[in-house]
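Why does residue order matter? Because the sequence determines the fold. Keep that principle in mind as you read this record.
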Amino acid sequence: MVAAAVALAGVGGLGGAAGCVRTRRTPDDTLVMVIEAPIKNADPRYAVTSYDFKITKLVAPGLVVIDRPDLEPSLGLAAALDQPDPLTWVATLRDDVRFSDGTPVTADDVKWTFDTITAAGSDSLYHKQYDERLAGVDVLGPRQVRFRLKQPLATFRTDLDLGIVARHAAGADGKFAGGRVVAAGPYVVAEMSETRTVLVANRFASPAPRVPRIVIKVIRDASARIMMLGGGTADLAQNAVRYDLLDDVLYRGRVKELRSPSNVLTYMMFNNDDPVLRDVRVRRALALALDRPAVIRTKLAGRAVLATGLLPPFHWAYAAGVGVFERDLVAAGKLLDEAGYPDPDGPGGRPRLRLSYKTSADQFRLAIARVLAAQLGQVGVEVEVRPFEFNTFFTDIKKGNYQLATMQTAEVVEPDTYFAYFHSSRIPDKANPDVGNRWRYRSADVDALLDAGRHELDRSKRISIYGEVQRRLAEDLPIIPLWHEDNVALVNRDVVDYVVLPNARLGGLARLAKR
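Structure:
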């Protein structure tokens, strides 16, 4: 169980006079949130970016929702969810749910939502995921729908987190224009542009959100976001301020910090097809050369926990004691010697080997990359850090055009996420460039475990299976798990009851209030 998000006192200016600061500069009926990149699509079938995904959860909930601190799925639009046999799930809709235009949510809407994703030629990013799982979706009555699976799936309750949208309100192509998705969430998209998204309360939502209007402003400059929070023209920013600048913002006394542990992994990836990096001894040596606690301390202001793998320590399938390693330059040097990369002339001379390290051009991530590269240099590995605009960077990663790189995962709720990232069937190619095994890891044993884990319905047996997966990956090290960065929200002191979730979703916006 994850502890609830806690408010943390800032340093310096939060006592005494700080409590008298007038914090309200935004309208009483409006919450202003600042983010660093625009929201492109609020349709859950076509969400691509992280912010797209988060907004869909406010606009279009699914039969199941994942908005609890323990990340366990709970019923959303469904009143009941039954599994009469391993290949069948039956969902019964709540009788009180209405779309934002007042019409009832029906079983036909549920079937249509899933059918548009699994249809041949669908351009949904989730087509492959659901097409592999579903044999069909049947309407059993106005409020009851049956899902037929191709194979038993332990993951399917979580898969039903997909948002449901209104069939009657879509265009002839099955899509919604201008982000105006008709769904049953607490908020409705009133405006969406490159500079801001405006959400207004869905008057048919139950329970109704406590703040009638949310304005999400796109502020690309990090300093400007800090100034808006400090000056009171913004009410909230979540994971949008550099960790090493947080205390400076808190010092101003207008905002408070809320945070929770995260289920997102920051990792260093290796191209396992690279002639140098295909040798596990080299990968292990690089892992032993990194001083991860120092990065957490200096760059992340202590707001992260060391990672041992894909799953965070609070996850039910986490294997404690597996994949734990500490910096050891002597051991790292010995492994490089064994791999055929001896030190040619002693410390400080010519390098053992040279590697290229690609990263996004984001200044904070670039700064971290340079620290990691310098740490590798201390074991005789010369690393050239090469920053790129994100789209160029990500295209190269998918093509395998890299040696080292650092990235973050999407939220990890189901341990079946291991399948997406490490199964050999998920190595990108021309036909499937967007699948997740971008490090090109191959292991028949791990493939077999991952196949078993997604079809095993007994949770205790799944824990055992994924424990073995974690042990195997800790030995093979196709990536280096670095850390799980805390989710941090900076919130105006007039805002109350906002909860930061481990998956960093924004469901708390529907439950907060301004006093």
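Residues 266-485 form a domain with the Dipeptide-binding Protein; domain 3 fold (CATH 3.10.105.10).
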